[in-house]
Write a structure and sequence with these properties.
With 378 residues, the chain is an alpha/beta fold. The protein is built from 18 helices and eleven strands.
């Protein structure tokens, strides 16, 4: 199969990376893309490398990176508007009096042209908001199967209807999408062992951590995190601290944003790390932190979910809590019992490296895509 993997990266990560590498924007397209992929942000090249190893032709597209995409557009003589590149995608979708801003050739137009020229069998979109329904429809003559993947709140149904298949790590989303008449399959997230090679040796020197964002999607978690900041020595890493009240006990323990490998390093430095799912996960374990934390060898203390036992053996490979008080008790217990913590962390890492790697995930994904591709041709 020829597969185009469309992804968007957090703008704050992109800005941080290009600021730290001021000459990068002047580099060739492949150089910029590889530099981004080498940071291990999101799913990085975790899909493409393993799909290529299975014999597929795969192209990574980081479609919201302005320096990267404008470099490609200039090299391929694709016209674009500097104004459109500088505007957030949400503004380009707003209805305005007069010619719509969406008519200006910007990042979406460049991505559409990339896809058309690659002519993939499968367009695999990690961001269901990036291409509007009209753009998905325009790509139909150039793509045989359009697939989306989601582990966040669903966009409006008109955005979903343009996909032939939606993969999701939320078990509860599958029946809901199918009830809308949209084909959907359950597909778990994973961990890539390349991260361990890129990190090298990391000494655990943080007793307990929370590594993650604080946003409106995590609203229910904030009171618990503040309670833990008062009752345990937990340290915080990630985005969103600027949204907190200055009196929040998290502020004094917050070490700022960590992206890509720096995020993995913060986890690897942690003897114990706390995980909390976003609200839309409801009562199902699914998120990336399950695999990222265990993959780098931290003891994962995660919120108790109905399907957690399907992923890990609770109590032997990970530890689960049902309340802020229980989370605090577990953090204090495993700080006081480091040998027990190391034993569970080692078992959790062994489980992830055996069952939850992206190599395994791509071995699961490829047959699903092939099956739906065959069905689309009938």
């Amino acid at each position: 199969m020829r597969i185009a993997l469309l992804d968007t990266y957090y703008p704050r990560f992109l800005a941080t990376h290009y600021a730290a590498n001021p000459q990068l924007a002047a580099g060739a397209y492949d150089q910029q893309r590889q530099s981004l992929l080498d940071q291990g942000f999101g799913t990085s090249d975790f899909y493409s490398r393993h799909l290529r190893a299975l014999g597929h032709d795969v192209e990574d597209l980081i479609v919201n990176c302005t320096p990267l995409q404008s470099t490609w557009a200039r090299a391929h003589r694709v016209p674009f508007s500097a104004l459109a590149l500088g505007l957030p995608q949400r503004l380009l979708r707003l209805p305005l009096i007069g010619p719509p801003l969406s008519a200006l050739p910007g990042l979406v137009h460049i991505a559409v042209e990339q896809i058309k020229r690659f002519r993939p069998d499968v367009l695999y979109c990690q961001d269901l908001w990036f291409l509007a329904p009209a753009q998905l429809a325009a790509l139909r003559p150039h793509v045989r199967l359009i697939v989306g993947q989601i582990a966040s709140p669903l966009p409006p149904e008109k955005y979903l209807a343009g996909y032939d298949l939606i993969m999701t790590s939320f078990p509860h989303f599958v029946p809901r999408l199918r009830a809308m008449g949209i084909a959907s399959e359950y597909f778990r997230i994973g961990f890539d062992t390349r991260v361990l090679d890129l990190l090298g040796e990391v000494t655990p020197d943080i007793e307990a951590s929370f590594v993650g964002g604080i946003s409106r999607h995590h609203g229910k978690a904030l009171p618990m995190l503040e309670a833990l900041a008062r009752s345990t020595p937990i340290e915080f890493f990630g985005y969103g601290a600027d949204r907190l009240e200055r009196t929040s006990p998290i502020v004094a323990r917050h070490h700022g944003e960590v992206w890509g490998l720096d995020m993995y390093r913060a986890l690897a430095r942690s003897r114990v790390t706390l995980n909390r799912h976003i609200n839309v996960a409801e009562n199902f374990a699914n998120n990336m932190r399950l695999y990222e934390a265990t993959g780098v060898g931290a003891l994962l203390i995660t919120d108790r979910k109905d399907n957690l036992g399907d992923l890990f053996e609770v109590g032997r490979e990970v530890v689960a809590y049902a309340s802020a008080e229980e989370a605090a008790e577990l953090i204090r217990h495993y700080i006081a019992h480091p040998d027990e913590a190391r034993q569970i962390a080692a078992a959790g890492q062994a489980r992830t490296l055996r069952d939850h790697t992206y190599r395994r995930r791509m071995e699961e994904l490829a047959p699903v895509l092939e099956r739906y591709l065959e069905g689309a041709e009938r």
